Amino acid sequence: MRVQSVLFFIFIASTAFAAADSTTTSIATIQSDELSSRVVIADHKQVKRSLRRYIPGELDSANEEDRGALDKVDDVVTKLDDVAGKQKKLTPKWDALVKKNLEQLSTMGALAKKLSGKYEDAYKLSLPTLKQLDEIEKLRVNDIATYTKESGKSMRRVIEPFDGIKIAPKKFLESHVGRDLQRYDPVDGSRLLSASVVSRPKNQGGGDVLLISSSNPNKGDWLLPKGGWDKGEDVKRAAMREVIEEGGVNAQLLHGLGKSKFSEGDKKYTYYSYMMKSSTVYDDWAESARYRIWVSYDDAIALLAKRPHMVKVVENAKKIDGKVKAGKLPEADPKMRKFTLDL
């Protein structure tokens, strides 16, 4: 909804310039029933322009609900005017910081507006995620209808070799495509699947969650790496295999995220979900025609909104991660260490 987008930008405008050191900057504290934040007073006219420029929809077509949100923008603008009249000076250091934040706000707004036609929640996403999506949409123009999942080879993009290229192990360079070996629950007949939330350490670029695109580049869907649990295959190793085949990542198991059941139409599924951490990110892998992005938990939840069963898996991973960071759980469950892939 446009209201949510407007409120998002009110939040950005009221917090982007929060000061960390009140002794070296000119700061005013604004308090009201709707807004309580510490705002660095800078070029408030530019802030006003930024607020209004990227509100989705036209003002003259706003419905009653939208106009209520736009009134909130006016409230913020008025407060900025009031504070600007009291504080006029900024040190060069903070002046540069304000300009940087304004540039980021402007970039976020422009990208969100550009991508909102394909991504309903574009205005909720962070700048790093928006930048990744923008680059991918440029690639998608040429990739639509080029790749299909008729065979493992057809999903593999042709990548010209380069110095330092990392290619997935040969045994994982063709994805599983047959369904004759798949498992089904003997009680409810649901298809048994693995699903994974894979994080990437900061020294590899960071990211709480690996998302991959649908095997059909025309769909524009984002998914967690998932796949069939074949007969004769351990589900944990199946999860690790799928992460390599679909996402091009060799990952270590950290924690189990439980079992969940869901239905799509008349089809039933059971997920066995796991939390993993990347050890190697390959440049060339079985399904390299897929796009992949590394995003925060919150951005993953927004992009998976149409797949509530995957949202629950990410939410569980976020809770586990919180316990790990709080020292309530080890980074990795010792029981998971024995599960590795023969590369």
UniProtKB/TrEMBL annotation:
Residues 189-318 form the Nudix hydrolase domain. CDD domains: NUDIX_DIPP2_like_Nudt4 (cd04666). InterPro entries: DDP-like_NUDIX, NUDIX_hydrolase-like_dom_sf, NUDIX_hydrolase_CS, NUDIX_hydrolase_dom, RXLR. Its main location: secreted. The keyword 4Fe-4S does not apply. It is found in: Secreted. Residues 1-20 form the signal peptide. This is RxLR effector protein. GO terms for molecular function: metal ion binding; pyrophosphatase activity. PROSITE patterns: NUDIX (PS51462), NUDIX_BOX (PS00893). Pfam families: NUDIX, RXLR. The keyword NAD does not apply. One of its GO terms (cellular component) is nucleus. Belongs to the RxLR effector family. Effector that suppresses plant defense responses during pathogen infection. The RxLR-dEER motif acts to carry the protein into the host cell cytoplasm through binding to cell surface phosphatidylinositol-3-phosphate. Its cofactor is Mg(2+). Keywords: Hydrolase, Magnesium, Metal-binding, Secreted, Signal. PANTHER family: DIPHOSPHOINOSITOL POLYPHOSPHATE PHOSPHOHYDROLASE (PTHR12629), DIPHOSPHOINOSITOL-POLYPHOSPHATE DIPHOSPHATASE (PTHR12629:SF0). It comes from the Eukaryota.
